[in-house]
User: Which sequence fits this backbone?
């Protein structure tokens, strides 16, 4: 049987939702965790694509430890830069299309208006530099079949994330101090997975031009604003969340002050951009609470 979709990083927070959506829709899909395919191994990548012959590959595998990348840049580059390059070369050989996940960290984070897809990149840290290397490798090897989707501020039921942390802190603390000088777009992994699948189908149909897309929710807020919305949805007083600045949480890697992305690319492909972040969070919240409840039950055993 011909494989239509091959997904790397299939056990990650986003990968789980992409694979679940494909299987729900009856697509022929293979999902591979790192144990099934190490994308830094060029021979393994070529052998895997030769064996499965997918029509489209979605690369959700990545080094996502932003702070660790500062001290372990060479390792991060192998995963975020070399790995996508290996996948792109294998896709070029087999005729597959490739969707590469990237990040807002490729930008400087000092803008005052949403970054367009063709905006100038200027990463400030190792993580952003390694992800930009992956973007360039894909677009160079696959000028007509490579798709880069930048995303940011992801949350979902399949992994650790800011929303999950705030749900836990609401039950554990009277007040929580949260950064109010970093702006971005909270994005539900289910919504992003839906757009990745739509993009893949449009790519196969020849209606989506290759290039860069921005996969984030509409609107914008700060981490403080997001935390207040989480507390509101929990039925508690949002005033228990107190604003602070990024200087209160010093970390090895610099955080972008402004991570708001523009979404014109989707319309050129005939695909609606992702809905507003508040609407998505309200829709996602029951599943997020169920996951938190299941975690507590598991730890109590």
Assistant:
């Amino acid at each position: 049987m011909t494989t239509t979709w091959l997904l790397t990083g299939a056990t990650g927070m986003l990968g789980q939702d992409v694979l679940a959506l494909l299987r729900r829709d009856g697509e022929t899909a293979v999902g591979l965790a790192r144990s099934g395919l190490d994308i830094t191994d060029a021979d393994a990548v070529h052998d895997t694509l030769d064996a499965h012959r997918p029509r489209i590959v979605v690369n959700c595998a990545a080094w996502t430890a932003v702070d660790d990348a500062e001290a372990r840049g060479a390792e991060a580059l192998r995963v975020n830069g070399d790995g996508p390059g290996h996948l792109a070369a294998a896709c070029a050989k087999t005729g597959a299309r490739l969707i590469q996940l990237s990040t807002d960290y490729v930008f400087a984070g000092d803008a005052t208006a949403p970054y367009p897809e063709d905006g100038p990149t200027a990463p400030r840290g190792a993580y952003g530099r390694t992800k930009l290397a992956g973007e360039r490798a894909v677009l160079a090897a696959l000028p007509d079949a490579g798709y880069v989707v930048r995303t940011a501020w992801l949350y979902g039921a399949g992994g650790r994330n800011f929303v999950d942390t705030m749900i836990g802190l609401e039950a554990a603390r009277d007040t929580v101090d949260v950064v109010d000088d970093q702006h971005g777009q909270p994005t539900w992994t289910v919504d992003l997975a839906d757009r990745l699948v739509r993009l893949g189908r449009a790519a196969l149909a020849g209606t989506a031009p290759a290039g860069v897309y921005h996969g984030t929710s509409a609107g914008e807020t700060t981490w403080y604003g997001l935390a207040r919305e989480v507390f509101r949805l929990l039925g508690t007083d949002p005033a228990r969340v107190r604003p602070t600045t990024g200087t209160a949480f010093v970390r090895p890697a610099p955080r972008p002050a402004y991570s708001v992305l523009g979404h014109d690319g989707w319309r050129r492909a005939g695909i609606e951009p992702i809905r507003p972040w508040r609407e998505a969070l309200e829709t996602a919240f029951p599943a997020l609470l169920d996951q938190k409840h299941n975690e507590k039950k598991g730890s109590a055993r």
